[in-house]
Specification:
By secondary structure, the protein is of the alpha+beta class. The protein contains 19 helices and 21 strands. It has an eight-stranded antiparallel β-sheet with strand order 11-12-13-14-21-18-17-16, with no helix packed on it. A hairpin with a 2-residue loop joins β17 and β18. It is elongated, with a radius of gyration of 26 Å. 49% of the residues are buried.
Length: 636
């Protein structure tokens, strides 16, 4: 069992990227000694009203006040849910994460709602239940999710009492409870000083001391076990931002605070060294709020605690990281999704606006206004920092004119994402890349296609996460495989996982609206392929997909697959008709192919909530095994 659990993080920890660049942008801003003089102590940086300042909160919350009170009222009689030992053990026994995460997450949501409700109303009505929630969390052995508890020394899923795990959840709870301590310490002390004393102790042990003294967590990118260039992802800025806010709210020893802040700078620098300078989020739009978005949170807090003296928002790379989310938006809620990202959603409106304001991007501000049409009260769950930061810009966002225009050409040359669009409503997204990216799917050379903001050729995304998702069994899941992307099977062989399996000779041209890549190097030796150039040529109203190939041997006929969610008709040889939500599209294919359609049922709600109950794989198979050839597919 222990080996199985350890493998959970193999995909996150083992890889080394090709484009690591030691920029160290943050560390170039200052050293430790100068940082000490910059720091603002004793929470004098906090601009939000004190809890007892009722007029201040009425002004700050504005029309959102009642929404927070109503949300909190739902939890006045809430029965706190026990997270049982067997809920943790389920992760080992069956791979199920949700059995632990669901009650745990509901409890955390209750604490956040009660906290914001009491700040909004200020009459003490929510305080007792807030105390219940705080004490409930303090009594838990761990604040980490069962899937992440395995980072402890035992590598098992049942939490140990003396080895705190700093994961996404623990950091998020640390963020929330640090704000709880800041706003309500005096109120808690009037009930019983033991409440805030216990809370402060748990925050010290689980968050502050763990961050300062335990470098074993892979996302920290420090210690003798860390190799520069190893894969880092959203965990790094996410956890570091939570650590930073906890230190800012709790630590007032200048030397200790400086040490902690500088440690976060060193760690986040490793993330900024790992990601590409073009600013694309290789994890896809679903992770934009957690990777670039959490980088924004971190950088804003770093600027605040240093009085604006450590500030890198003028760096072009940071602006590009922000604008990735607007460039990846196709329309009508659809986004360009690669890796584990969903084809719907990605980034809330207030976060997008804050990013636009920080990097002076009118593109992001207008896009944020478009995403904010419902105009509900800002809510980021237990991420209290984000909720408060969103409230600060809420009125500005409401007064901003909505605007979003699909750019005719967007190219991320290092990440190798290419977006092309026409005035007639065609939108193509193609990628090169390699098959060892964060949250990787084997998809080098794949594409997605939309017409009039409707997906035609799709990337399915990923199902609900289980232990299998991040284990050695990951690529037994169909959504991860290249044969369930818009790609060929060469000699009956799909692409392989690993940093050596990648696209080469990647070209993206604006004027010709053209993308091409040799994807032969994404396939294992069993495919017996010399070269396979996949190219996309976008006309005003049609897309031409061409495969030009040379094989070492022709063992069996090649098969080219396309994924769609539209109803498929293959009754006419040489032509596939796809009907999607009132759009009729044809896919013309060479006469040497035969067509079949596979129906893929989607019982997993993470997929069916996007695509419905089923999607379809169109399999076009050559009638002969060929050493060389050129296939052409035309979508009209």
């Amino acid at each position: 069992m222990k080996k199985i659990i350890v493998l959970t993080f193999a995909l996150l920890c083992a890889a080394t990227t090709f484009a690591y660049t030691e920029r160290n942008i943050l560390q170039k801003q200052t050293d430790m000694e100068r940082l000490k003089d910059m720091l603002i102590l004793n929470q004098e940086w906090v601009t939000y009203p004190d809890y007892v300042n009722r007029k201040g909160w009425d002004t700050f919350l504005g029309t959102s006040k009642e929404a927070y009170i109503r949300r909190g009222e739902k939890y006045l009689d809430y029965q706190w849910q026990v997270v049982k030992a067997t809920d943790y053990l389920a992760y080992e026994r069956t791979g199920d994460r949700k059995i632990m995460e669901n009650p745990f997450g509901t409890n955390n949501s209750a604490v956040a709602a009660l906290l914001m409700a009491e700040l909004a109303e200020g009459k003490g009505r929510f305080v007792d239940q807030l105390v219940n929630g705080v004490f409930f969390l303090c009594e838990m052995s761990s604040w980490a999710n069962s899937a992440h508890v395995v980072l402890q020394r035992s590598n098992r899923a049942l939490p140990s009492y003396d080895n705190p795990v700093f994961d996404l959840s623990a950091g998020g709870i640390g963020n929330m409870l640090s704000w709880t301590y800041y706003f309500f310490k005096d109120s808690f002390d009037k009930i019983d000083p033991e409440i805030s004393r216990r809370l402060r102790h748990e925050l010290q042990v689980r968050i502050l001391d763990t961050y300062l003294n335990d470098d074993s967590f892979w996302w920290m990118a420090r210690g003798s076990h860390y190799k520069k260039g190893r894969l880092l992802n959203n965990w790094n800025p996410w956890c570091n931002s939570n650590a930073l806010i906890a230190f800012m709210l709790l630590e007032n020893n200048r030397d200790t605070l400086a040490k902690a802040v500088y440690m976060t700078m060193e760690s986040v620098d490793e993330f900024l060294n790992y990601i590409k300078a073009d600013g694309a989020c290789e994890e896809g739009p679903s992770y934009w709020g957690h990777a670039p978005g959490k980088t924004l949170d971190y950088l804003e807090m770093l600027s605040v605690i240093t009085g604006g003296k450590v500030n890198i928002f003028a760096e072009p790379m940071i602006k590009s990281m922000g604008e990735y989310i607007s460039r990846s938006y196709v329309g009508d809620g659809w986004v360009v999704n690669f890796a584990d990202a969903s084809a719907k959603g990605g980034g809330d409106s207030h976060l997008i606006y804050r990013f636009g304001k920080a990097v002076d991007s009118d593109e992001l501000k207008g896009f944020a206004a478009l995403m904010n049409q419902k105009r509900s009260a800002p809510w980021s769950g237990m991420d209290i920092f984000r909720t408060l930061a969103s409230l600060e810009i809420d009125n500005e966002l409401k007064q901003t004119a909505p605007q979003h225009i699909n750019q005719p050409f967007t190219w991320y040359p290092e990440t190798e994402f290419c977006y092309l669009s026409t005035k007639d409503g065609l939108f193509l997204a193609a990628k090169g890349g390699y098959n060892d990216e964060s949250h990787n799917h084997n998809d080098a050379g794949t594409c997605s296609v939309w017409f009039d903001q409707t997906p035609i050729l799709i990337d399915a995304g990923v199902g609900t996460y289980t232990r299998q998702t991040f284990s050695k069994e990951r690529y037994s899941i169909w959504t991860m495989q290249s044969n369930y992307h818009n790609l060929p099977m060469i000699n009956g062989v799909p692409q392989s996982f690993g940093q050596n399996y990648k696209a080469t000779d990647v070209v993206c041209q604006s004027k010709k609206r053209f993308f091409s890549a040799n994807i032969a190097t994404a396939y294992p030796k069993e495919a017996e392929v010399n070269s396979w150039t996949r190219s996309y040529s976008l006309g005003d109203k049609q897309l031409t997909i061409t495969d030009n190939f040379s094989l070492k041997s022709a063992k069996e006929p090649n098969q080219v697959n396309f994924l769609t969610w539209g109803k498929v008709d293959i009754s006419v040889p040489g032509k596939v008709t796809i009907d999607v939500q009132g759009q009729r599209v044809t896919l013309e294919y060479p006469g040497e192919f035969t067509a079949t359609v596979e129906t893929i049922n989607l019982p997993d709600t993470r997929l069916s909530n996007v695509w419905g109950t089923e999607i379809y794989r169109i399999a076009l198979k050559d009638k002969d095994a060929r050493l060389t050839g050129k296939y052409k597919f035309v979508i009209k």
